Amino acid sequence: NAEYMGGLTPFAMTTPQDFFYSMPFVTRYYIAGALTTTLMLATGMTAGSTWILDYHLLFNKFQIWRLLTNQLILGSGFPFLIRLLHLYKYGGELERGSFRENSVEYSFALAFCMLIETVVGYFMGMRVLSFATIHMMMYLWARNHPNDQVSIMGLLTLKAPYLPWAFVVLTVIMGGDPIMDLLGIFAGHCYWFLTDVLPKTHGTTPLRAPAIWYTLWGERPPSATPGAAQRPTNMFGGHDWGRGRTLRQD
């Protein structure tokens, strides 16, 4: 059973540095970036308008950094803490578990989902998409743990696949707008469909990190590794990066 919040890995490291480097690579620096951004915004070192998605400045002034920086804004107060914990738990477990710390493939998965969010955000006037990305991580994690029982703060126990939808309902009950949660679910479902459903139903994997993505990371693509055996396929990208769990088929 996985306890929401209570199921997080205890910070039982010798030093903060040990804890930091115990996290998988992408998750580690995503969290570091989010913490740095929050500190800079809270202390007035920088203005939020410099970080958010401004599509006019993106297309006309080529301020392409906004595609990334808006993903580092996690809010403030208690919501910020919750999102940070979600990033640590669901993002970290995805990278360490489903992708077996293959940070190249995991970063490509994030980039693909963020691209979907950005396109939708353009038509809906969204300026900060990190909330959707965190929920996308939760959705993919839930798809990878179809039989796990999760507890939401000890008040509600349900199967993992229902967790993202439970948070949509909670958002509505608390008077919030669930559009970001739904966008995250949509982006995550697109990735899951292309990397799990299609390979199983049609024997093809239309989405995986291209060779140039590996090159940008300074890594050699799997097919270019001399003497490398063909890896077995599973739920993500057609390769066995997971822990042997099979996603639930709906």
Description of the molecule:
With 250 residues, this protein is mainly α. The protein is built from ten helices and three strands. A three-stranded mixed beta sheet has the order 1-2-3, with no helix packed on it. α5 crosses α7 and α7 packs across α9. 33% of the residues are buried.
Show the helix and strand layout.
Elements: E1 2-4, H1 16-22, H2 25-42, H3 55-60, H4 66-69, H5 77-98, H6 103-124, H7 130-144, E2 149-152, E3 156-159, H8 163-173, H9 179-202, H10 211-216
Parallel strand pairs: 1-2
Antiparallel strand pairs: 2-3
Helix pairs in contact: 2-5, 5-7, 6-9, 7-9
Keywords:
250 residues, mainly alpha, three-stranded mixed β-sheet, 3 strands, 54% helix, disordered N terminus, disordered C terminus
The total of helices stands at 10
Strand content: under 5%
- Give me the count of strands: 3
Could you give the order of strands across the largest sheet? 1-2-3
Mean pLDDT across residues: 83
Into which percent range does the helicity of residues fall?
Answer: 40-55%
Compressed to H and E, one letter per element, the order equals EHHHHHHHEEHHH
Largest sheet: 3 strands, mixed
First and last CA, distance: 22 Å
- Unreliable residue stretches: 1-11, 225-250
Provide a compact summary of the structure.
With about 250 residues, the chain is mainly alpha-helical.
